[in-house]
Amino acid sequence: MAAKLIDGKAIAARVRAEVADEVAAFTEQHGRPPGLATVLVGEDPASAVYVGGKQRASEEVGIVPFDRRLPADAGAELIAEELQSLNDDPAVSGILLQLPLPAHLDGPSLTALIAPEKDVDGLTPINAGLLALGAPGLRPCTPAGVMVLLDDAGVDLEGAEAVIVGRSNLFGKPMGQLLLAANATVTTCHSRTRDLAAVCSRADVLVAAIGRPRTIGAAHVKPGAVVIDVGINRLSPQEAGNRSGLVGDVDHDAVCELASAITPVPGGVGPMTIAMLLRNTLQAARSQAELAGART
Questions:
Q1: Marked catalytic residue, from 44, 67, 73, 98
Q2: Is 121 a catalytic residue?
């Protein structure tokens, strides 16, 4: 029996509609809407597309977009000045520094300059620490989106064995923390893991985020497992054949007969990232409004 498809596109649309309603209520209550600033350094075509999508999505839900573009040869000092200006601007609720940055720049160091209360990517050291401690804070968008997908699919994480393939600061590590907070038993695999298939095949929930196409196959999946495919890889026309050139880290055809539920690529995890970014921006705006009210 084929796995149930977890429709990230539909779930993301629902989240965005909820955010739009809540943004309208926030704007009426506080007299101004939340604002989301994106900072793009250079002219990387993929990054420009991502930023454009975030700008459009903001406008669609009533969040004011602030589009900041800097040249590819911009130095760290210029970027730091731009981030500080946005930190100081009360109209800006959230700030996103689009990654990756040009090679001469240190992404983590510059991201750390974003005020934690405006860090809608959830990547500053303070927000990472709050997540590790289980304290309230802004969470990284893609892992938070995965948690929404699992909840929508009715997955019981209490005591479940969850395996994450990938240990990046952007996804793998925060994903593990969120699953731990939901009382799952979490194993994180990486490039040095011995017998990856054996470890993965124990999982009730398997999350693949390694950036290599179709790496996770039938041998990695326990029958009845829930499989979340975070990867998105573009194949050459020769590799893709007659199909879409976009594939995940999971060999979907090989796995879908074993899994109980699986996310497709595209249309699974991807749409959730921007939806959760919008939710984070609203959360940031609410927190800042509460803090401002407490000071008056």
A1: 98
A2: yes
Domain around 109: 31-115
**Structure tokens, 256:** 């879908």
Q: Are residues 160 and 90 in the same domain?
A: no
Catalytic annotation on 238? no
Backbone angles phi and psi of 189, in degrees to 5? -100, 160
Q: Do 103 and 44 share a domain, yes or no?
A: yes
The predicted-structure confidence for 118-150, as pLDDT tens digits, reads as follows 999 999 999 999 999 999 999 999 999 999 999
Q: Find the farthest-apart pair of alpha carbons in the chain and give their distance in angstroms, rounded.
A: 64
* Catalytic residue list contains 222: no
Q: Which neighbouring-strand residues pair with 68?
A: 39
**Of the candidates 170, 43, 32, the residue with the CA atom closest to the CA atom of residue 91:** 32
Q: Please tell me whether residues 211 and 107 are part of one structural domain.
A: no
Q: Let me know: does 220 contact 251? Beta carbons within 8 Å.
A: no
Q: Show Cβ contacts of residue 184 under 8 Å, excluding neighbours closer than 6 positions.
A: 157, 158, 159, 160, 161, 162, 205
* Tens-place pLDDT, residues 64-90: 999 999 999 999 999 999 999 999 999
Selecting among 54, 173, 204, 283, the annotated active-site residue is 54
Answer yes or no: are the C-beta atoms of 263 and 227 closer than 8 Å: yes
Structural domains of the chain, count: 2
Rounded CA-CA distance 173/193 in Å is 15
Q: And the tokens for 261? A: 């539920």
Angle at 285 between CA 279 and CA 286, to 5 degrees: 90
Find the catalytic residue in 121, 229, 249, 251: 121
The model's pTM is: 0.95
C-alpha dihedral over 138, 265, 254, 160, to 10 degrees?
20
